[in-house]
Amino acid sequence: MNLLSRLFSNRQDALTPLRPLWHRVVEIAREKAWYAEHGMADTVPGRFDTITLVLALVLLRMERESELMEPSVRLTELFVDDMDGQLRQNGIGDIFVGKHIGKLMGTLGGRMGALREVLPQGDAAVAEMLARNMTLIEGAKPIRVAVAARALQVALNATSTEDLLAGRIAER
């Protein structure tokens, strides 16, 4: 086995335990209610915004526990891997993928920072932030997305570390 194979197989081995959580993040972000009831745009940018919203809430939950630092990094790596694959599938060439990934990571980081700031302030503050930063359908009421996001935050906070890592997030 050559060096590159060992490096990449070790990386994949490290990511494997977090795959159920990543799949659950995507599953939550694909729930029809985000689009049909809450007003997220059912477009590529809207779906990306929903995934980053859900992922940001999960990562913020993971921030609370020091033993989840490394798993949160691995979860973020799965996000990057998935986005890399999506970009390539949509025809973005090797030369530009890194630049796009950098922008996507900036969006995720910005979303986390904004949520970290507004979540303690209540639904109205969250709705205002979401109205500025998310792709919503025309006429959408950002308060609906805010209420759904805060309900997910409550569910995440009620989820044990073991269940979270296994992708078993409490009902909202």
Characterise the protein shown here.
The structure is a single chain. By secondary structure, this protein is mainly α. The chain has one domain. Helices cover 74% and strands 0% of the residues. It has nine helices and no strands. The chain has helices spanning 3-15, 19-29, 32-36, 44-63, 69-89, 94-118, 123-133, 142-158, 161-165. Helix 5 packs across helix 6 (94-118). The longest helix has 25 residues, at 94-118. The termini are far apart. The model has no long low-confidence stretch (mean pLDDT 86). Pfam families: Ubiq_cyt_C_chap.
Can I get a quick summary?
The protein is mainly alpha-helical. The chain is built from nine helices and no strands.
Features:
Ubiquinol-cytochrome C chaperone family protein, 172 residues, globular, single chain, Ubiq_cyt_c_chap
Please estimate the helix content: over 70%
Query: What fraction of residues sit in β-strands?
Result: under 5%
Outline type: globular
The CA-CA distance between the termini, in Å, is 46 Å
Radius of gyration in whole Å, from Cα?
Answer: 16 Å
Q: Could you name the ranges where pLDDT drops below 50 across 5 or more consecutive residues?
A: none
By helix and strand content, what is the structural category? mainly alpha
Order of helices and strands: HHHHHHHHH
Please provide the count of β strands: 0
Please, how many domains?
1
Protein name: Ubiquinol-cytochrome C chaperone family protein
Domain Ubiquinol-cytochrome c chaperone: 37-169
Organism: Novosphingobium anseongense
Family: Belongs to the UPF0174 family.
